[in-house]
């Protein structure tokens, strides 16, 4: 059951500037009000400034707002200037990190689209990001992306050369840069909390397309707090078209190619030791295809999973034996284009795969699936279909913009956050004596 806070309710419950009361409630909405004894002399109003409801501390306000769904932050910005400042300054995201509040989401640029979209964990809601203000060369060319904290980094080629554009979730805005120390493409990347890593790839030395292509073994780390890159020790092998992941507190780079051969080895970087360790024949069980994509890998609960592009098999890596165990077929066709056109990522404690559906004969029918993998299981994973062509992003963009205006005054909280909010309100300074009298619990706690 969802609980909806109206925009006026946000003023009543959290604002230090407006101490308002709640007078009525319905089955799906929480509303605050004074009892008849304290309000008999006043007529109900939309803005009832009562001296009987104490204010909440700034700290508690921040904790409450930080636990609200991230997709609802734009609504919080309309409550008052302080709330807008909390959202735009990024303070709510810092609070989330400090309390360990994790909310997976997906930022995606679909083929043929000119705008990025953000999706919540269940793909039940989405919003369009601002248009990336790049030149036509960047917009129409191939791009690579990675996340670091609340930053989305998109790398591609502009007319003047390789370029990175940065989207900051808190500001809801695109910025140019910062460029890598060694600009590159076709690199491996991985994210760990508030940091991102890149390794390998190709750099072009010289003028334009006539320049010399150099395969990198250089490595860099991005810090969203300073918006800068830091060089790390170089890998043992230069490689391009490789894949990266973060597992067991280590940055792994797997597969790829040199100028002359396919690589089946992997290696990992240990930050404590500040060194790279080579893993021979890490991909020896995966057949090498010509013109194949970088290895399709994802990490969930410190377990490494891979999709074999030639057979659509989901595999899990057995660290002790340096081998792979088959878990069954994935519900998308990775073999259509040798792995190209398939997204395979971790999504919280689930695997997320997006690609051409196995239940449709059309290659243009894209499906979105998730599953909770079990590396010890011998049975097929239970894949949950989230979408099979229902989401039409570009077509619905204008219609959704109009509909969102009607949803401006609602804020949805999940059940866990509702219970936490009750507990915090009961402990809030000066609120204890009024809490049970003010709050109407009957519909709110019908979970």
From TrEMBL:
Protein keywords: Kelch repeat, Repeat
CC annotations in GO: cytosol; nucleus
Annotated SUPFAM superfamilies: Kelch motif (SSF117281)
Keyword Repeat carried by entry: yes
Pfam families in UniProt: Kelch_1
SMART domains in UniProt: Kelch
Source taxon at top rank: Eukaryota
Keyword Repeat: yes
Gene3D superfamilies xref list: Kelch-type beta propeller
Name of the protein in its database record: F-box/kelch-repeat protein
């Amino acid at each position: 059951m969802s609980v909806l806070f109206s925009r006026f309710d946000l003023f009543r419950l959290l604002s230090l500037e407006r101490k308002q009361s709640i007078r009525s409630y319905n089955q799906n909405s929480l509303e605050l009000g004074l009892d008849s004894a304290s309000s008999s002399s006043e007529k109900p109003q939309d803005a009832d400034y009562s001296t009987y409801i104490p204010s909440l501390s700034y700290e508690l306000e921040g904790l409450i707002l930080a636990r609200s769904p991230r997709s609802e932050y734009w609504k919080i910005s309309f409550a008052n200037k302080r709330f807008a400042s909390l959202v735009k300054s990024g303070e709510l995201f810092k609070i989330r990190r400090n309390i360990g509040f994790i909310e997976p989401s997906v930022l995606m640029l679909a083929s043929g689209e000119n705008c990025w979209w953000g999706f919540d964990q269940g793909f039940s809601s989405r919003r369009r990001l601002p248009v990336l203000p790049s030149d036509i060369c960047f917009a129409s060319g191939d791009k690579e992306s990675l996340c670091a904290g609340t930053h989305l980094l998109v790398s591609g080629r502009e007319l003047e050369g390789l370029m990175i554009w940065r989207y900051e979730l808190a500001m809801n805005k695109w910025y140019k840069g910062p460029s890598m120390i060694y600009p590159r493409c076709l690199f491996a990347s991985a994210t760990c909390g508030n940091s991102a890593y890149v390794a390998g790839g190709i750099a072009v030395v010289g003028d334009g397309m006539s320049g010399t292509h150099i395969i990198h073994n250089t490595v860099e780390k991005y810090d969203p707090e300073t918006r800068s890159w830091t060089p790390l020790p170089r890998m043992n092998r230069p490689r391009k078209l490789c894949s990266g992941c973060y597992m067991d507190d280590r940055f792994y780079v797997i597969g790829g190619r040199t100028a002359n051969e396919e690589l089946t080895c992997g290696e990992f970087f240990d930050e404590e030791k500040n060194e790279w360790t080579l893993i021979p024949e890490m991909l020896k069980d995966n057949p090498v295809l010509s013109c194949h994509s970088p290895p399709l890998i994802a990490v969930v609960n410190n377990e490494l999973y891979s999709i074999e592009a030639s057979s659509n098999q989901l595999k899990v890596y057995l660290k002790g034996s340096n081998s792979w165990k088959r878990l069954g077929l994935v519900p998308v066709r990775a073999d259509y284009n040798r792995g190209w056109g398939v997204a395979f990522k971790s999504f919280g404690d689930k695997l997320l795969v997006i690609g051409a559906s196995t239940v449709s004969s059309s290659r243009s029918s894209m499906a979105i699936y998730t599953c909770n993998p079990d590396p010890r299981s011998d049975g097929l994973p239970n894949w949950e279909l989230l979408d099979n062509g229902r989401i039409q992003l570009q077509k619905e963009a204008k219609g959704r913009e109009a509909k969102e205006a009607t949803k401006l005054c609602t804020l949805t909280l999940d059940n866990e956050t509702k219970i936490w909010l009750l507990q915090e309100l009961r402990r809030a300074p000066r609120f204890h004596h009024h809490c049970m009298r003010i709050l109407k619990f009957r519909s709110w706690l019908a979970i």
